[in-house]
Amino acid sequence: MTGIFPMKDATAWALESPEPHRLMLNDSQVPVGRGYREAVPLALLTVSFQSIKAALMNPVKSLRSE
Known about the structure:
mainly alpha
């Protein structure tokens, strides 16, 4: 039955599938997930490096150069 409650049909389909715990992924979704998995640690590393560098820098020396 479609129309009024399409979500009910989707839920029934998911429960009737042979392996309901698995997700169906397209080929275009896999690289996006890998991109996030690689981008987040790189961003954390970059931000950590810049904050440590700023913390160790002498503020008087940086103000003189401006």
